[in-house]
Design brief:
The complex is a heterodimer of chains A (129) and B (205).
Chain A: H1 3-22, H2 26-51, H3 58-81, H4 91-99, H5 101-109, H6 111-120
Chain B: H1 2-13, H2 21-51, H3 54-72, H4 80-108, H5 135-153, H6 156-167, H7 172-179, H8 183-201
Helix pairs in contact in B: 2-3, 2-4, 3-4, 4-7, 5-8, 6-7, 6-8, 7-8
Amino acid sequence: MNEDSATLLEERSRALFEDSVERVDMRVRSRLTRARHAAVEAAAKRKGAWVFGAPRWTPAAGVTAAALLGAALWFAPQMGNRPMPATDNPAFEDLDIVASSDEMELLQDDPEFYDWANRATSPDPGSVG
Amino acid sequence: MPRFATLSHACMAWDGPAPAPEDAALDQTRELEKFLAEVERRAFRIAQVALRDADDALDVVQDTMLKLARNYAARPSAEWRPLFYRILENGIRDLQRRRSVRKRFMTWLPGPKEDPDNEAQDPLENVADAAPQAPDQLMQAQAMQQLEISLQALPARQRQAFMLRTFEGLDVAATASAMGCSEGSVKTHYSRAVHTLREQLGEVW
């Protein structure tokens, strides 16, 4: 097979193909046109969504953001009203008493009363006058 | 006068403000439609030669158009042609595989054999042509039919290489891209296809 015969084959094949393309019937042409319009419409919709800054996941993101905001509003007041946790360490209570200046003043005002009160709560009843 | 000429030239050279994104998208959509209109009938014929069925060929071309538009419309238009034919060839191959599986499965099922005489026929097929074909047109049609028979007898890769290079006019690089293989493979497949076709059709043509 030489180059010329190969080229002739290609040229002839191409011409026959072009001729057959021109003879495609109207039914097929019509269906192809409809398919083309559907494809172009699909492309336009897709492009439009990106052009106007609204990607397809926007609704999902909006719903998620609304749910998070709702949860924050629901739980925030409850967090604010919650009582302080009780502490198991009594040293903190003693520290408060010692730090309080009012308590120290009371002790200085009436030491005899406190002495009596201490004896009254003691287990030996005979010591109370 | 030269001053006016210079000013006029400057005005002509100024393209104005950059187009809005909406305009650019519209331009690209129009360009896509133009491309598809240019390629649709050729793609149909290529698919028809490979699949030997007009409806299957239409389905594959329709699917190819949609896939290109949905997934690759934003790509530069110069890339569309090889991408389009790659999608088309994949669609043809998938359909051929499904047919093969269906055929194997059907041979295991008992049932009445299809009688070719009783097949439902498309009524349009029986409608006579409005204008009878001229002798040279008839010869063209017969020659194309012989070419199609020879192409269908070729291995799939050789047929693809021949149709993309000869019918669609793709260069070696674009054909390789469409076929998903190396340029060397394209040259080999193409050369073998031409050799086989020349041997089969040489005497007829």
